[in-house]
Amino acid sequence: MILTLVMVLALIALRATPAEKQYRPGRWFILGGGVLFPVVILTALLIYGFEIDYPLFRGESEPMNIEVTGHQWWWEVRYPGGGGAEVVTANEIHIPVGRTVRINVRSADVIHSFWVPRLGGKQDAIPGHENSLDLHADQPGAFRGQCAEFCGAQHAHMAF
Fold this sequence. Notes:
With about 160 residues, this protein is an alpha+beta fold. The protein has three helices and eight strands.
């Protein structure tokens, strides 16, 4: 909508005659188009963004933790369990529906980038440093993830 309005105004300005180009809009046009319109649009976008992000901030007491380590060219996934039990997988992550999951991301060798586009998360994995990312799936399904940082010759095959 905004792009269309700007394009229409640009076309009107390009096709205007020299006499029409001498017209100077009044203060109401400057205040309405330059102040009021952007404030209204940005406020609406802010409210919309809060509605989308709300599931991530439900106030759950303790999110489920999953440890993910990037290797050249695969992902090691560790699910810490109670009593010292631990499940380890490669290139496959399972998360519960309707619950926030904290992904603790690290790298064993070079910089990787843990990215799950449909769940809206992307976090760099840097050697010697741990980053975390909160994900929340509202419905069951298969959500493809990918390393989004070029990490070597087989980078394109580093999916999960």
